[in-house]
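Action item from last meeting closed. Structure (186 res):
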């Protein structure tokens, strides 16, 4: 059985370093773990209860919910915008958290990683994302954290998958998610 990790990237830029971290997660995932980077967050309208009606849910939001239902775990890869999580990730969590108590994230192991040029590596954004995931009833792995700040400049010339320390840290996060899925399914 393959463990499926849905990966949501908070930066929409095609050459984003956070996107490269997500690509690295897919590359270094342990055998039997399939890390899938979700494309299309920019197409999802802002959450609005008036739109979240059976038979009327926007196709982009429904596609995200379906991707989450097919996943065993979720990995958020987030930069920090103005001291917090990018709106596109908050919006994704909003759509995935509904209906409350039965949303697609309910009981799903989750972790947050990312990078920012600040020395703190987007820690505030990651803390906010973990809080939102917890409220959405995901099982946030509090010990599986990675906020890269001090070595951000290395990624200007080196893809994170080719940076041994970063690749190993990301592999550890993905392995922790896979382990949490195995515990849930045991």
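Sequence:
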């Amino acid at each position: 059985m393959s463990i499926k990790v849905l990966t949501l990237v908070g930066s929409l830029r095609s050459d984003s370093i956070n996107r490269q971290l997500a690509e690295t997660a897919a590359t270094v995932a342990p055998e039997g773990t399939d890390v899938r980077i979700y494309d299309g967050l920019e197409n999802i309208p802002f959450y609005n209860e008036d739109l979240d009606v059976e038979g009327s849910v926007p196709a982009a939001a429904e596609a995200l919910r379906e991707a989450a239902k097919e996943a065993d775990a979720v990995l958020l890869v987030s930069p920090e915008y103005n001291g917090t999580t990018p709106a596109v990730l908050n919006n994704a969590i909003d759509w995935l958290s509904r209906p409350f108590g039965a949303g697609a994230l309910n009981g799903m192991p989750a972790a947050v990683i990312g990078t920012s040029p600040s020395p703190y590596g987007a820690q505030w954004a990651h803390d906010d994302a973990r809080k939102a995931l917890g409220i959405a009833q995901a099982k946030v792995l509090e010990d599986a954290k990675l906020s890269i700040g001090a070595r951000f400049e290395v990624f200007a010339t080196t893809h994170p998958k080719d940076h041994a320390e970063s690749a190993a840290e990301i592999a550890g996060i993905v392995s922790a998610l896979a382990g949490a899925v195995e515990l849930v399914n045991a």
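Note appended to the action item: The mean pLDDT is 95.
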